[in-house]
Amino acid sequence: MNEDLIRKIEAAFTARFGSLDGAKLYFAPGRVNLIGEHIDYSGGYVFPCALTIGSYCIAKPRADRKLRFYSINIPKADVIETSLDDLHPLMEKGMWTAYPKGVIWAMAQAGYACTKGLDVVYGGDVPNGSGLSSSASLEVVTAIMLRDLNGFDEAKLNNIELAKIGNVAENRYLGANTGILDQFASAMGRKDSAILLNCGTMEYEYAPISMRGKRIVVTNSNKPHSLVNSQYNTRRAQSDAARDALKKVIPGMVNLCDIDLKTFYEHADVITDKVIFKRAKHAISENQRTIDSLKALKAGDLNRFGDLINEAGESIRYDYEATCEETDLLVDAARIQPGVLCSRQTGGGWGGCTVSIVDDENIKDFMANVQRIYSARSHYHATFYVVDVGNGPEIIKQY
Q1: Which of 27, 99, 306, 342 has its CA 20 to 30 A from that of 397?
Q2: In angstroms, what CA-CA distances link 110 with 156, 168, 222?
Q3: Phi-psi group of 377: left, alpha or beta (phi > 0 → left; psi -120 to 50 → alpha; rest → beta)
């Protein structure tokens, strides 16, 4: 737990909303996707893990239907006030409160309507726009809070259902056609484990991560990205176009990642557009790499795991074209450093972060050398996070 951040959230709550008596503190983690990029919406396998950094909130029920939101990460916004009766999908572009309001709306759509207003203060240590799912952790911490304060049945409204609600909020309230990877990883995280998730069936398996003297280093390019405003929706449409073409000639196919590369190449002539062909090739090959990654970890073959992550990085860079000059530079700089097993861009793309696996003894030099190269060749200054694999969301305490 980030005790310093919690104290700041507590102070902000008392300054704006009064006593903490009767309030509760909640947490939901951010995530990093080790492999399986841009295939969650194509029914593929993803392999994320939750982090020990994430989003916190302190919430207290009100007697009326008023909603009052504040974030210590966006102090210039001050308190934003609305109500349970004033939630409008696709009408709040650029407003950070669209995320919690979207979750409230999506829960009502699922039959779990909130009846009491709230005073809520948020704070997080996941950088916005970094590709570590600050938005998903915000959605999940809101969902956990709403389930608890409204007394909704946890057996029916379990964490998988909360992940789905967060995804509905992102898709239908905010208008971002994201898959469920981010919300699922936040809602279902487990310490020292990654999650192999089949996004087509929602079947999942935990895989213990034993790095043996290595750590995960996330490098933030500090070039911000926005899934709503980026080329994300275009890539999804291209993937859907490939799926629709292949479905016409492959009986029983539902999702793009239902087929393997051999089947894809046998029928690839139905995809006449070269760009759409590349998008499909990425999705189908990435799906196989993700499955192979679980096998490698179970066999204790970290070198094979690292090779697969590097291959995934090349695919997202050249076939899916979802990287940018800055993250490409970070990956190239990382891979030439001593003690680096692998490195690639992670997250939605066109900015954000890279993920590398680095020997403990080389991390200090790794950060210094990559920073030197990056600062000399870009307009940005990188930020590094040596992260641990953490648990899912939790109720921390009641005041």
Answers
A1: 99
A2: 11, 10, 36
A3: alpha
* Spatial CA neighbour of 219 closest among 372, 14, 2: 372
CB burial of residue 218 (10 Å; 0-12, 13-18, 19+): buried
Residues of the chain with pLDDT under 50: 228
Q: How far apart are CA 48 and CA 231, in angstroms?
A: 22
Distance between CA 293 and CA 298 in Å, rounded?
A: 9
Q: What is the pLDDT of residue 228?
A: 46
**Sequence spans of domains, the chain:** 3-209+392-398
Cite the active site residues: 182
Helix (H, G, I), strand (E, B) or coil at 83: strand
Between CA 212 and CA 291 the distance in angstroms is 22
Q: What is the pLDDT of residues 371-384, one digit of tens each?
A: 999 999 998 999 99
The span from the CA of 160 to the CA of 41, in Å, is 16
Q: Please name the CATH architecture into which domain 3-209+392-398 falls.
A: 2-Layer Sandwich (3.30)
Angle 388-23-399 (CA atoms, 0-180°, nearest 5)? Answer: 80
| Cβ-based neighbours of 314, under 8 Å, separated by 6 or more | none
